[in-house]
Amino acid sequence: MARIVALSSLVAYGHVGLRAMVPALERLGHDVVALPTVVLSSHAAYPHVAGTLVDPATLERMAAALDANGWLSSVDMVITGYLPTEAHVSVAAGLVQRIRKLSPAMRYICDPVLGDDPKGLYLPLETANPLRDELLPLADIATPNAFELAWLSNRPVSSIQTAISTARTLRPPLVLATSIPAANDHLATLLVGPTSAHATSSPQRAKAPSGTGDLLTALLAGHLASGKTPPDALAHASAWLEQCLDVSTGSHDLNLAPLYASPPSPLVLLTA
């Protein structure tokens, strides 16, 4: 069992942010320390949404209390997701650096939640820029979608090959790039390292529910924390995500029921 700190959004209804990440990580047997950056009624696709930002100063006090209780010295992994303001980005960077001093072998996974096609960037530049320039360089693994990969690198991402070359321009040594256009109306998920790249591919869906990136990031993290190699973690994580997508067809929200059934067989990996 690994101890994993997760910093992201918390919703009362639906499965995005921490409500997607925590069940996946716990299903894989890990202990999760969950810190919410916002508390909302649901994700923003619904017509009525209410909630509030969690004060960054409150998050800093929570981190200090966790540290004082001795709970950060045994952290194996940190995951960050939705960070709504520049101050939250600063809190995330400080938390990563604090834990890395206490636990130097810790791995940090940054899900740079910035935007998506066709909406584009949905964070203000005063938040997105420090996320790119200050937080992302601290990461061991980044998990951008195609839009985020292009924005972070200022390079176009239109195919598997352009995604691979673009991923290698980012500072993290390992990049999980999602929603990459592939042949025959498929989308690829790429795991790109300095000298190798592996992929899974699935038919493009008319509409994917919110939270798929959160869930895939957590599943990848959970399998890595369980000792799987990065390619094996990709194969197992993608298989579980596909099952959740299959049972979520037509819904705004992810159905996590497959997490509580027997684990699926890993997807076949393609060498990209």
H/E element order: EHEEHEHEEEHEHHEEEHHE
What Rg, in angstroms, do the CA atoms define?
A: 17 Å
| CATH topology value | UDP-N-acetylmuramoyl-L-alanine:D-glutamate ligase
- Going by CATH, the homologous superfamily would be Ribokinase
Q: Quaternary status of these chains?
A: single chain
Number of strands: 12
List low-confidence stretches: none
General form:
globular
Distance between the termini: 32 Å
Task: Compute the average pLDDT.
Answer: 96
Structural class label: alpha/beta
- Give the CATH class: Alpha Beta
| Number of structural domains | 1
Written account of the structure:
The chain has 272 residues and is α/β, with parallel strands linked by helices. It has one domain (3-271): UDP-N-acetylmuramoyl-L-alanine:D-glutamate ligase, CATH 3.40.1190.20. It is 36% helix and 22% strand. It contains 8 helices and 12 strands. The strands form 2 sheets. The chain has a 10-stranded mixed β-sheet with strand order 3-2-1-4-5-8-9-10-11-12, with helices on both faces. Strands 6-7 form a two-stranded antiparallel ribbon. The two termini are 32 Å apart. The relative contact order is 0.14. The mean pLDDT is 96.
